[in-house]
Amino acid sequence: MQTRVYQAGSVVYFAGDKSDRVYILKEGKAQSIFLSEETGYEAREAINVGEFFGVKSLLGDYPQEDTVQCLSDCVVIIITYEEFENLVAKNKSIIIKMLRVFSNQLRRLNKKVNKLVEKAEDEEETNQLEGLYNIGEFYFKNQKYKNALYAYKRYFQYADENSAFYHTVENKIKACKEKLNITDDSDIAPPLDIINENNSSNNDINNEDYNKALELYDNGDYINSIKLFNALLKNENETITENSIFYMGKCYYNIDKYDNASSILLSAIKKYPKSQNVKEAILFLGKACEKTGDKEKAKAYYKKAASMPPNDNISKEAEKNISKL
After folding, report:
1. Which helix (H) or strand (E) holds 51?
2. How many CA atoms lie within 13 A of 150 on its CB side?
3. 270-314: pLDDT as tens digits
4. Residue 199 has what pLDDT?
5. Topology of 2-90 in CATH?
6. For 208-324, CATH number?
7. Which helix (H) or strand (E) holds 248?
8. Where is the Cyclic nucleotide-binding domain (predicted)?
C-alpha cells in the first residue's frame, strides 16, 4: 500500500487504461469523467474522500471505463490486488457498498441496450450505406482523396460482405491510399458531410470554414488555422467542436507555444476521453514536455501513447521518441 500526491488538474488514470491497482481518495477533491449509459453524453461524478475507484478494472481485468481527474491537490492511496483482497475480507461493509454501485450501473446499462435496440430497428441501414458510398464517390471524383477515404472507412463500419458496393469500396480505399501515398489512415480527419450525416438540420455549420481550417493546417499555416478552429469551438455540432479543440492544441505546438498546446490538449482529453484523437494528443503532450525540458513527464506520455491500440504510426513515433530520451 502506497500513498501518492497528485496536483490539481492531474489525471490519476485515463479511460482505456488497464490497472492492477485500486485507489482510495484520502484527501482533496476528484471527479470521475465517463460516458453516460443513459444519454450517451459525457457525465461527471464527484469522488468523495474515503471512496474507492478503479475497482471494476481490477476485478474484471478490463480497461478503465472512466477518467479520474483531481480538482484540487489530492492524496491518493494505491492498493494492490492482494492488499485489496485482505481489506475486503476484514470489512464486509465494503462489499455491500460496491454491490450497490454495480447494481445501479447494470440497471443503467440495461436501459442503454434497450434504447440501442429500438434505435437500430428504426434505422434504414441500406440508405445510410448508400449515402456514405455516394459521399465517398463525390470526393473521389473531385480528387479529394482524404475526404473520400474517410467516407469509405465509415461505410465499412456498418457494412458486411453482402452489402451493396462492398468490394467496390474495398478497392477505392486502396486507390485513395495509393493517391495519398500512405499506409496508415488512422489520423484521417472527417469532412463535414460525414460529421453532419445525422445532423442535417443544424444550419450553423459552415462547411467551408471547417475544411478551410483543415487545409490551412495541412499547409502549415497554423496561425490562421487556429483562428478558424477557435471560431468553430462555438459550433453546436459536438464532433466539430471535438476535432477543432484537438487541432488547436497541435497548432500551438507547431508554433512553439508549448504551454498553450499542453493546456488545450489536456482540456480536450478531459472533455472527450473517448475521442479517437486522444492517442495523438497524448503523443503531442509528450513532445511538448520534451521541448520544455521535462523529460520524465515526456517519457510517461510517450509510454502511454505507445501502449494504446492500435499499433500504428503514433505508437511507432512514441517508441522512437522514448529511445532518444
Report:
1. none
2. 14
3. 989 988 889 999 999 999 999 999 999 999 999 999 999 888 889
4. 47
5. Jelly Rolls (2.60.120)
6. 1.25.40.10
7. helix 238-254
8. 1-105
